[in-house]
Fold this sequence. Notes:
Helix content is about 25%, strand content about 15%. By secondary structure, the protein is of the alpha/beta class.
Amino acid sequence: MDNPTHMMKNVHLDGDAFLIEGNHVGVVLLHGFTATTAEVRLLADYLRGFGYTLSAPLLPGHGTQPEELNKTSWIDWYEAAERAYLELRGKCTKVFVCACPAGCQPLCSSGWNHCRCASFKNPRDRAFPRNAIFR
Length: 135
């Protein structure tokens, strides 16, 4: 590898934004800080089994070089999350937002008025209630 800042890509962990068409219930899945949508793919696969419409935007600056991430702010991430939410609102009668803690923080602290944002942790964490996301 000639360039030490060359971005490595694992083809088994596709981190691009995705939209999976499904029924009238939509779920926006937000990855955490410095992550990509690969972080929410397993959850998306699980939710797909219920027929939900799923949207996972790749937040600006993520999945790139650190220098690109440094050019973005929480406002950029907020706007990307809002676009994904509004896109699903145009397709679905109900929309939920599920985010990694860092993905949820900008929405909650900015008083996002569209919905309540559910944050999830690692399911192996003993403090994680197994049915918390799906009540």
